[in-house]
Amino acid sequence: MGTYGAARKRDDQVLRFYSANFEDKGIIEVPLADLKFEKEHNWTNYPKGVLHFLQEAGHVIDKGFDFYVYGNIPNGAGLSSSASLELLTGVVAEHLFDLKLERLDLVKIGKQTENNFIGVNSGIMDQFAIGMGADQRAIYLDTNTLEYDLVPLDLKDNVVVIMNTNKRRELADSKYNERRAECEKAVEELQVALDIQTLGELDEWAVDQYSYLIKDENRLKRARHAVLENQRTLKAQAALQAGDLETFGRLMNASHVSLEHDYEVTGLELDTLVHTAWAQEGVLGARMTGAGFGGCAIALVQKDTVEAFKEAVGKHYEEVVGYAPSFYIAEVAGGTRVLD
C-alpha cells in the first residue's frame, strides 16, 4: 500500500499533473512561476505546496516536469495519503533537479505544506513516518524535539490489519483543530503553577494533582488523554523492545478507550470496529488510528485467524452501521524512496 509516481523533466516552465486516481480531473497544468493554492486544482495543491516551499527554501527548480501519480491508499481515510503525496513530490524534485536535501527538511516541508498552503492545523507525525520509516521498525518520536528512535517491530505470527470504516473524514473539517485548541488552553491554565510548555512534560500524578487549575471538564479530559497517551507510548516502546506483544496489545486497547471517552474522537463506526475486534479470537489489540471521526482503525491479529476475523467483524459492522467496512493487511516498510 502506498503512493507511486513517475516524472520527467520538461524544457519549459510548465508543470503537468495527472493522477490515475482522479481521472476525471484530467491533466492539470500549472505555471512553475505561479504556485498558489487553487481549490479547483484539487489534489495537485499538495505537490504545488511542496514545490513552493522548496523554492522558498532556496532550492533551484528551474524547469517544469510531467508528473504521473497513482496510489492505493484510500483518500480521506486517515491513512496519510496526503502526506505520502507530499513526500513523493519532494523525492521526485530531489532527483530531477539534484537537490541537496536532508530527509528531515523534506518532512518539515510536508508539514509546512499542510499548515500554510492547504490550511490544515496538523502535526508532523504523518510526514515523519512516511519520510523516516524503516523496514520492520516502529518509530518512537518526540514531536516536540523531533528526536526519534527506530524500535524493532517483530510481529512474530501476527499481522497488522487495517479496518476502514468507509466513512470519509476530512481532517480540515473535523474537530481536530478544536481538540488541539483545548489541549493548548489546558497548558495555559496549568502554567499558572507549573513551568511547562507541553502536556507531554507531565505524568499521571501531576495531571491529577493540578487538575483544579483546568476550569472546564472537557479540557481536563483532553489533557488527561494527552498525558496518559504519552505514558502509554513510553510503555509501548519498552514492550516492543522486549518483544512483549501482549503488553503492546493491551496498550493499544487502553489507548482506544481513552480516545473514546476522554478525547472523544471516535464515534459509532470506529467504536463498532474496535469493540467487535476485541471480542475476536487471536486479537492482541485494536484501536482507532488517525484523527478520528471516521477513517480507520488497526488491529494486531494472529495470522491464522485473519480470515475469520474479517468475516466476523465485517458482518457485525454491516449489521450495526448499514454498510460494509474494508480490510487491508499492512506491512511495515521503509520510507519514501526511488524504485529500481
Order of helices and strands: EEEHEHHHEEEHHHHHEEHE
> In CATH, what is the homologous superfamily of the largest domain?
GHMP kinase, C-terminal domain
- Count every beta strand, where a strand is a DSSP E run of 2 or more residues: 10
Number of domains: 2
CATH-derived architecture of the largest domain: 2-Layer Sandwich
Radius of gyration: 21 Å
Mean pLDDT: 93
Hey, roughly how much beta strand do the residues contain?
15-25%
Q: Which fold name corresponds to the CATH topology of the largest domain?
A: Alpha-Beta Plaits
Q: Percent range for helical residues? A: 40-55%
Family: Belongs to the GHMP kinase family. GalK subfamily.
Binding site for substrate: 176
InterPro entries: Galactokinase, Galactokinase_bac, GHMP_kinase_C_dom, GHMP_kinase_C_sf, GHMP_kinase_N_dom, GHMP_knse_ATP-bd_CS, Mevalonate/galactokinase, Ribosomal_Su5_D2-typ_SF
Organism: Streptococcus pseudopneumoniae
